[in-house]
Design brief:
322 residues; single chain; Rossmann fold; 10 helices; alpha/beta; 2 domains; Alpha-Beta Plaits
C-alpha cells in the first residue's frame, strides 16, 4: 500500500511507515548505531500526541526525522501530505528543540523579530504578534525588550523558545522536552500554553520525561524503546478498565476484612488494600460498620501512566532508571 492511500475519518497530519535510521561510528566507521527501527506512526489533525521513552530510546531522532533535519536510512513518511523534508511545509510548522541555541547578545524582543523575519512576516503583524506571544508564555515585555538572552535563566530561555516556535502561527507544533528546566509554576504555565494551542485546533507532537504532564494533556501517547515503538494508543485503551477500588480505614476487627481485601495491610490500627469492583461497595461498607471499623477512603484504583510505562519497559528487560 502506498503511504497516504488509506482513508480515515480524521485527517492524518503525520504518517510514517517503517522508518529506520542507522549511523556508522568508530574509528573505522565499522560500528553500527541504530536509534530508530521500523517505526510506523500516525498523528491526526488537532490531536496532542506525547512520545515517551527512556534516555537513548530514539525520541529526538524520530522528531528530527519528522522535521526533515535528518534523513531516514530507509522507510518513508508524510508531514502535512508532503514527503518528510519537503521545504514547502516549513512555514506551517513550529519547533522547540530540547537544548535550543540563541544569539546571546540579542534581547528577547529582537530575537523574536529575527525569527519573524525568517518567515517574512510583515512589520505590522510582528508588532502585534510578538507582544501576544510574550504574554502567552509569561515573559514581561519590558524584560524582553531590554534584557539580552545571555542574561536569561533556563526557564526564561524555554519560554522565549516556545514563543519563537509559535511566531508563524503554525498548524503543527513539535516540542522536544518542553518542560525541561522549568519550576512547578513554569510547568503549569507550559501545560496551559499547550492546552490553549489544543483549543485552537493545533496538532502538537512532543517528547517528555514528565509523565504526569503527559497524562494530563495528551489525547494519545506512544512509547519508544531501543528505537522501536512498543505501543501507541489513547490512555484509556492502554491503561485498561478500572476494576478495583482502593480502600482505607481504621480500627475494628480486621480479621473480618480478609475475605473482602485479599491484599489487606494493617499498621497501628489503620488498614488499606484493594476491593474488587464486582464486590458491592455498600455491602462492604455494611461489613466495616458491623465489625466496628471506619472506612476513611474508597476510590477507583486507576493505574497511572508511570506504572504502565515502567511495566512496559521491564517486560522487555529495559533499564527504567532515567
Amino acid at each position: 500500500m502506498v503511504l497516504g492511500e488509506e482513508q480515515t475519518a480524521m485527517s492524518t497530519v503525520i504518517e510514517t511507515q517503517n522508518l529506520h535510521k542507522v549511523y556508522r561510528t568508530g574509528f573505522w566507521m565499522n560500528q553500527l548505531l541504530v536509534p530508530l527501527k521500523s517505526c510506523s506512526i500516525k498523528i491526526f489533525d488537532g490531536e496532542t500526541f506525547g512520545l515517551l521513552g527512556p534516555n537513548g530510546a530514539g525520541k529526538t531522532t524520530l522528531l528530527k526525522t519528522l522535521l526533515g533535519i535528518i534523513r531516514p536510512t530507509s522507510g518513508e513518511g508524510l508531514l502535512l501530505g508532503k514527503p518528510l523534508g519537503d521545504r514547502t511545509v516549513k512555514h506551517q510548522i513550529g519547533y522547540l528543540p530540547e537544548n535550543p541555541y540563541f544569539y546571546d547578545f540579542l534581547t528577547g524582543w529582537e530575537f523574536l523579530q529575527y525569527t519573524a523575519g525568517l518567515f517574512q512576516l510583515p512589520k505590522a503583524l510582528q508588532q502585534k504578534r510578538i507582544p501576544e506571544l510574550l504574554d502567552l508564555v509569561g515573559l514581561a515585555r519590558s524584560a524582553a525588550q531590554k534584557k539580552q538572552l545571555r542574561q536569561y535563566s533556563k526557564g526564561m530561555l524555554q519560554r522565549v523558545g516556545m514563543a519563537q516556535a509559535l511566531i508563524n502561527d503554525p498548524n503543527v507544533v513539535f516540542l522536544d522536552e518542553p518542560m525541561s528546566g522549568l519550576d512547578p509554576m513554569g510547568r503549569y504555565q507550559m501545560r496551559e500554553i499547550i492546552t490553549s494551542l489544543k483549543r485552537q485546533g493545533k496538532t502538537i507532537f512532543f517528547n517528555s520525561h514528565v509523565l504526569s504532564d503527559v497524562e494530563l494533556i495528551c489525547d494519545r501517547i506512544g512509547i519508544l524503546a531501543k528505537g522501536e515503538l512498543i505501543c501507541c494508543d489513547t490512555l484509556d485503551s492502554l491503561l485498561g478498565p478500572v476494576d478495583l477500588y482502593r480502600v482505607q480505614g481504621q480500627a475494628g476487627d480486621t480479621t473480618a476484612l480478609q475475605p473482602w481485601i485479599p491484599d489487606l495491610e494493617v499498621e497501628n490500627h489503620h488498614w488499606h488494600g484493594h476491593l474488587h469492583k464486582e464486590q458491592n461497595p455498600q455491602d462492604f461498607l455494611a461489613a466495616v460498620s458491623k465489625m466496628g471499623g471506619t472506612l476513611t477512603s474508597l476510590t477507583l484504583a486507576k493505574p497511572t501512566l508511570e506504572e504502565f510505562f515502567v511495566q512496559q519497559l521491564r517486560q522487555r528487560g529495559i533499564e527504567t532508571s532515567q
